[in-house]
Amino acid sequence: MEVKIADSWKNILQPEFDKPYFKELTDFVKSEYENYICYPKAKDIFAAFDFCSLNNLKVVIIGQDPYHGPSQANGLCFSVKDAIKHPPSLVNIFKEISSDLNQEYPQSGNLEKWAKQGVLLLNATLTVRAHEAGSHQKKGWETFTDCVIKQISEEKENIIFLLWGGFAKKKVKLINKKKHHILESGHPSPLSANRGYWFNNKHFSKTNEILQSMNKPKIQW
């Protein structure tokens, strides 16, 4: 696996690429992609960083694993390619946006447009074997993405972190609460949403209110 990461992120992440665990991780990922069908496509593994520059960063959303079905994952958490059926969590995200902001349910599940506005859509694990959820967990990706969160916390200020569900909420220890804004809620998955832990969290309007209070452009969700 060749690591091609956007220049704006290189400066703060380069030390990670030189560490032994990252070499083991790249060897593992390379072998997996050579011997199995894996997602996302190799060129999209670092897409979250390609579409959202560090300089433009406003919001961080943390997911867990890429989608493991055909043609779904595009390197951005919760996002799918154009014309792909929306997975259940994304359906609930869009329902909440629709009611929170009083706007129509979006047709495309491709969230690149969010990323281009400064939303980092970061999965904790950046790759997965087809049809095997969690198959690339605990191979080093989490060490890397934890470092990403820590570096953002240290290098930036007034970033809005949206922590959805138990897994994402554990990342709070990596974030300096005095410098940043943290919004927490249940996960948008049907299991959590149907128990009342997701809907009406109003994270999308709250995010825009925080951005407006800092005279930054709102996100067009």
UniProtKB/TrEMBL annotation:
It comes from the Bacteria. The active site is at residue 65. It holds the Pfam family UDG. PROSITE patterns: U_DNA_GLYCOSYLASE. InterPro entries: UDG_fam1, Ura-DNA_Glyclase_AS, Uracil-DNA_glycosylase-like, Uracil-DNA_glycosylase-like_sf. It catalyses: Hydrolyzes single-stranded DNA or mismatched double-stranded DNA and polynucleotides, releasing free uracil. GO terms for molecular function: uracil DNA N-glycosylase activity. Keywords: Cytoplasm, DNA damage, DNA repair, Hydrolase. Gene3D superfamilies: Uracil-DNA glycosylase-like domain. It is found in: Cytoplasm. SMART domains: UDG (SM00986), UreE_C (SM00987). GO terms for biological process: base-excision repair, AP site formation via deaminated base removal. Residues 49-211 form the Uracil-DNA glycosylase-like domain. Excises uracil residues from the DNA which can arise as a result of misincorporation of dUMP residues by DNA polymerase or due to deamination of cytosine. Belongs to the uracil-DNA glycosylase (UDG) superfamily. UNG family. This is Uracil-DNA glycosylase. The lineage of its organism: Bacteria, Pseudomonadati, Bacteroidota, Flavobacteriia, Flavobacteriales.
